[in-house]
Amino acid sequence: MHFVILLCGGEKDSQDRDIEKAKAYWQAYQEKMSKKLRNHEEVVIEQLRNPEIAKAYLDVALEEYEQDGDLAFFLEALRNVAQARSGITHLAETTGLNRPNLYRVLSPEGNPELRTISLILHNLGYRLSVQPIQPSPGN
Predict the structure, then answer these.
(1) Over 17-62, what HEC string results?
(2) What global pTM score does this model have?
(3) In this model, does residue 97 exceed pLDDT 80?
(4) Which 3 state secondary structure label does DSSP give 68?
(5) Running DSSP on this structure, what letter comes out for residue 107?
(6) Distance, CA of 49 to CA of 27 (rounded, Å)
(7) Are 85 and 79 spatial neighbours (Cβ–Cβ below 8 Å)?
(8) In 3D, which of 123, 130, 81, 128 has the Cα closest to residue 106?
């Protein structure tokens, strides 16, 4: 659906020409904006190509899992990092996991074993580690 807004005050005999001109301006605007605007997922994937940003992203996702038990968020983060790095197909090849199984493991319904998560992280250039819990103030 497209809307063309015409301002009052034009000449009746130039109305058709003005409408066509407005449509042309609108199309030019849309083309210009489509080149500037990207969807959220494209921007996230681009940022996750940076190993430090990817590590921070995974750290936050793991902290969220620790707080609310929502594994789907961590798996989505892991999947996004994998896509940003080299893609799921390449990760499947380097881990020895088949691609459909890897997609299933990293889906919101996935329930991977610890060794699978460790294998994926290792092939992305990370490892699992254990850290002491910092006591909250007053404890």
Answers:
(1) HHHHHHHHHHHHHHHHHHHHCCCHHHHHHHHCCCHHHHHHHHHHHH
(2) 0.69
(3) yes
(4) helix
(5) S
(6) 33
(7) no
(8) 81
